[in-house]
Amino acid sequence: MPERPSALTTRVPAQHRLRDAPALLHVEGVVEHGDERGRLLGFPTANVAVPEHGLRDGVWAGTVQVDPAAGGPVHVAAVSVGHRPTYYGKDGQRLLEAHLLDFEGDLYERTVLVRLHERLRPQRRYAGSSELVEQLRLDVAATRAWALRAGLPG
Ligand SMILES: Cc1cc2nc3c(=O)[nH]c(=O)nc-3n(C[C@H](O)[C@H](O)[C@H](O)COP(=O)(O)O)c2cc1C
């Protein structure tokens, strides 16, 4: 059974859903198991396979809708698309990883619709995990700022 979202879940009221925030790109897929490092870093991610073309690498402010066919909840998310050069160099597997803001729960095997709205920066190689975590905090802050501008509770 999927866990129910906690009280901390960012739920976007229907009337706010993407009203003034036209999507640039979107990907629908089933959430896969990652290597769990994100959880250790304090930034757990939902990982989704990426199409080979059409999706630009980088870090994005966006949203993740869980079970879109059923009109599931929309969560604000900081989304990474790329090879995770900090850990894998240029040869790493290309992945989409979404960190849902204020969300606790297990999305494995659930279908999600990820929308990429604002590109925040390119993927970079950091000296180590603590440097990456510092940057992830900034990415989350930038994502919240985007959500505010877009009229979404983030
Ligand atoms: C918002 C966000 C930005 C990220 N930016 C980078 C980056 O610039 N460079 C990088 O190597 N990895 C980046 N990552 C990926 C992390 O390295 C990755 O989430 C972490 O290693 C956990 O991987 P796992 O989910 O496979 O365990 C980013 C992840 C997120 C959620």
Description:
The structure is a single chain. The protein has a single domain (about 15-150), classed as Elongation Factor Tu (Ef-tu), domain 3. It has three helices and six strands; from the N terminus they run βαβββαββα. The two termini are about 25 Å apart. The longest helix has 22 residues, at about 130-150. β3 (about 60-65) and β4 form a beta hairpin. The protein is an alpha+beta fold and about 150 residues long. The chain has helices at about 35-40, 85-90, 130-150; strands spanning about 25-30, 45-50, 60-65, 75-80, 95-100, 110-120. Helices cover about 20% and strands about 30% of the residues. Bound molecules: flavin mononucleotide (FMN). The site of flavin mononucleotide (FMN) has 23 residues, from α1, β4, α2, β5 and α3. Flavin mononucleotide binds next to α1, β4, α2, β5 and α3.
